[in-house]
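Posted in: Structural Biology > Protein-Ligand Complexes

Title: Requesting predicted complex, adenosine monophosphate in pocket

I'd be grateful if someone could produce the 3D structure tokens for the following input. Sequence and ligand are given below.
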Amino acid sequence: MENKLSFYNTLTRKVEQFIPNEEGKVAMYTCGPTVYHFAHIGNLRSYIMEDLLEKTLRYVGYDVKRVMNITDVGHLSSDADTGEDKMLKGAKREHKTVMEIAKFYTDAFFSDCSKLNIKTPDVVEPATNCIDEFINMIKVLMEKGYAYESGGNIYFDTSKLEEYYVFSSQSEKELLVGVRDDVDEDENKRNKSDFVLWFTKSKFDDQELKWDSPWGIGYPGWHIECSCISMKHLGEYMDIHCGGVDNIFPHHTNEIAQSESFTGHKWCNYWFHVHHLNDKSGKMSKSKGDFLTVSLLESKGYNPLIYRLFCLQSHYRKPLEFSYEVLDNMGAAYDKLVKKIGTLNKDGEIDKAAFDEYRARFEAALCDDLNSSMAITVLYDMLKADISDATKFALAESFDKVLSLDLTTAHLASEADNGVDAELESYILAKIEERKAAKKAKDFALADAIRNELLEKGIVLEDTREGVKWKKA
Ligand code: AMP
Ligand code: ZN
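-- Reply #1 --
Done. Output follows.
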């Protein structure tokens, strides 16, 4: 098949044509959530854009196998192997066991994903399922001389590598600035950039989950889980590895170090990273206390798909600043869009040439480094075009396989809510606009006539401070 898709590869630092190892097939891995708390909408931006990548790959014809881990052990408060274990922190906060916390927040994560129409990966594997695989990889790394024991822990020795900072020409000092939180030095390490593969002596003796290992009772480091879980399900060669940009260093850098030392060959060819969602004070993070969740947006009356549209309207490689003002604009745009699609008469002839033309334009936008906002522009252009309703409806249905905004079904939910069909609703909205213009032109007779005409159709208008509202009589 033709390889049409290009996207930015963090490994080569350029936009590249995507060519998988095996023709037509894609082995894809995503770093999953650390399930000690709800996902914030920043985390979910990463998962939305990775979902877009997966669906684009499928749309252009690839057979994708996507794997994701669930981090339920080993992720410390600082990515540099220091600080408290995140899961334990969650358990203490809620007076529950680590496994209870993991179960609750894994379910919450998939519930958020489902509200955002994020497809569940083909394989989802919690880290605590794979302790044997972790121990096996660490054993091999020890045998090959890439790992050492010090102070009761097993560390990866980064000085044994030809190149450790694979992702960047930045200096070690610059990279470590990004590691955040409390970077306090671990005296057991031979080199500053070494990292833990297995803990038996952590500062936190109250660690709840521990397993036996050749090096003593303990628990795995965070990075090892992604190398092992991906290899368990995808084998030793992978096409695309995804995550948020904060994962580039040290997490993904360490994953490459241990995976390639383990296998003795290159592991993954393409690295896809999503930039952060920020709020006014900087990167959105859970340590900041109150953080934005899907449930919070819902409690404020927003359909979660409006947040998906908000993400799709900006490029995954640009930082995005969250604001309710922009979200409100997205909400208005979304309502208009789905209402317009709801008024299309889908039972007619589909114009094949027009369908192919717009589908090709839509694909071209996505294949150009996942230009999702351009793909949405193609959707708007198509809806304005002089082509049959049935063609438009079929195209909207097709585009929604990737955009996943419920484009052709959302109007049904709103019809069920307000009891009128999309055609009547768009008529009412047009009449309200006409009446507004009449009032502005001081043509009160016309304004009254419009009100009466709607009343005859069983619709009552109310002039409120927020504008004109309508309801069924
Ligand atoms: P975590 O649950 O902390 O392991 O993070 C889950 C995913 O969210 C990872 O891929 C992170 O890189 C990503 N992530 C964390 N913070 C943000 C943010 N503010 N915006 C976008 N993605 C983020
Ligand atoms: Zn990972």
